[in-house]
Amino acid sequence: DVAIAYGYNNVPKSKPKSMTIGGRQPLNRFSDKIRAEVARAGYMEVLTFVLTSHEENFDMLNRTDDGNKAVIIANPRTSEFEVVRSSLMSCLLKTLKHNIDHPRPIKIFEVGDVVSLDTSRDVGASNNRRLAALYCNSNSGFEEIMGLVDRIVKIVRAPHINFGQTYYVPSSEPEFFTKRQCKIVMSDGKQVGYLGIVHAEVLRKFGIPDPCTFVEIDIEALL
Fold this sequence. Notes:
With 223 residues, this protein is α+β, with helices and mostly antiparallel strands. The protein has helices at 2-6, 26-40, 54-57, 89-98, 142-156, 200-206; strands at 44-45, 51-52, 71-72, 83-84, 106-117, 125-136, 168-170, 176-185, 191-198, 212-218.
């Protein structure tokens, strides 16, 4: 859009100083590796919109908007695209809602970017690549999702996470049941993700009748 507005003919022509072979960015290559591993675990990949509604991004997840997290779109054309998602959770729950008639268990995942306000950036916001996975069944529990996390940490050989040691720490996120959730932390104590059994109130708001377990991980921290 910028090039069109400026005019293609106004862009000066120049020959490259050296001939090189293009390659993928390390983060994209790492993302593909994680995608393949999660798919091998029986999860189906989905691709959702980066824009979502304010209600889905906060209220329907029992979260409150403090005004310092989400990037809000000015003059949105529809209420469904009011903010840039700050989590992948609402996107997967919405996808599950539209595919609720599929046989159980339903196992879906997405590797994508979330955006948050960041005053240290010149544009005022920053992207963050994350993995999110959702498991839905009549007897959903920790075992399936925790097994997936253990597998990913082991396969990617994350240098900052001590595999085999305790890297699950209790948490108190409003979108999960109390004492049925935890944070995923690195060896230095920094949180890189969270998982838990989705709260019944959240499931009711999305129209999902069965228990669900969800995990979201900052995969950039695993590089």
